[in-house]
Amino acid sequence: MPDPVILSVGASPVGDSELTGRDLFSVALAEAFENLPDPAGIVDALYVGNQSESYEHQIMYGTLLAEWAGLRHVPAERVEGCAAAGALALRHAVRDVRSGQCDVVLACGVEKMTAGGTAGATEALSAAFDRALEQRSGITAPSQYALLAERYCHETGATEEELARVAVKNHSNAARNPRAQYQSEIDAETVLESPYVARPLKLFDCAPVSDGAAAVVIASEEVAATLVDSEETVRASGVGAGSNNLAVAERDLTFVEGAHRAARGAYEEAGVEASEIDVAEVHDAFTVCEPLLAEAVGFAPRRAGVECALEPGERSDGWSDVELSTSGGLKARGHPIGATGLYQAIEAYEQLTGRAGDRQVEGAKRALCVNEGGVADAVTVAHVLEAT
């Protein structure tokens, strides 16, 4: 079957919103269908990435958002994979279209994290840890990632100053992203002087609590041709997924194996190599994630991932010329958990169709999106997207 294409995208701004989850979705839906027929006339199925029901005390998000979109009789399903939920929804949509089962599928994600406050978000995220081995110890997401960061710095010689540069780069990118939660630049001193959350990670090493919703319309190439011009679409040419042990204590902390397998699967399906990727959105929930993922997906040699904050021409031999997290990443664009994978796809779509404004990467033809759930790569989904 021909590759499915991204037909259209839409998203709410990311931040602390007064809107409910369903109303955030309405904003995303309105943008995605601004130049398309009514969803009820073309959409065959809907998938919703949603991390936790605890924020709004709401399950059945598939049914709810189908109703909200006027799709009361189509298959509608909530997908859960912690922070990888959005990419899983996109993966299901791509597979439905590629198989010929559906012509048009709506992949979306939504999270209203601020409804639970900081304590509620901490509790909801902790549910992604192994109950018997980790949750009962009281460990939190920042402390889990601090273990990864401590080990990474020990193994590679990376410093807190180098991790701070990742935050600086991504805030600089987010300052040019009208959807971003933080649209202002910061300097390394701001990161280094912020209080420790879990050593060596400080406040500005961590993604914020965020609200947001995103929608991506996946269609067959044949149907897409009847609705929009071909230059407005992006091919979903490769999809890969991987997983790892749920408990961090049961893993090798020096290499993100699940992400490696997910990216390798996406590359093989698309028939490309890591060196051919121009832009990438990687799951930088904490600054240490970007170096780890740069190594895992083949952009950087082992132990050189921390150079991700440098300009491509300043990196070591063996690094690709890829531009990372041009949206500002989870760190600065924001991280509404269940929607994050779709926000990544939206950034890739805008880069590949020349719609990224001041953050546009010249000549971008291929993108990689890597979305993780749980701590690091308990579940990882990777998509290769290409300009048509």
Helices and strands in order:
Blueprint: E1 5-11, H1 21-32, H2 39-42, E2 45-49, H3 61-68, E3 76-79, H4 85-98, E4 104-112, H5 117-126, H6 141-156, H7 160-174, H8 188-193, E5 196-198, E6 201-202, E7 211-219, H9 221-225, E8 234-243, H10 257-270, E9 279-281, H11 289-296, E10 323-324, H12 329-333, H13 340-352, E11 366-373, E12 379-387
Parallel strand pairs: 2-3, 2-4, 9-10, 9-11
Antiparallel strand pairs: 1-7, 1-8, 4-7, 5-6, 8-12, 11-12
Helix pairs in contact: 4-13
Looking at this protein, list some descriptive labels.
34% helix, two-stranded antiparallel ribbon, alpha/beta, 388 residues, globular, single chain, 10-stranded mixed beta sheet, Peroxisomal Thiolase, Chain A, domain 1
Outline the structure in words.
The chain has 13 helices and twelve strands. With 388 residues, the protein is of the alpha/beta class. The protein has a domain of 137 residues: 3-Layer(aba) Sandwich (Peroxisomal Thiolase, Chain A, domain 1). Helix 4 packs across helix 13. The longest helix is centred in the middle third of the chain and has 16 residues. The mean pLDDT is 95.
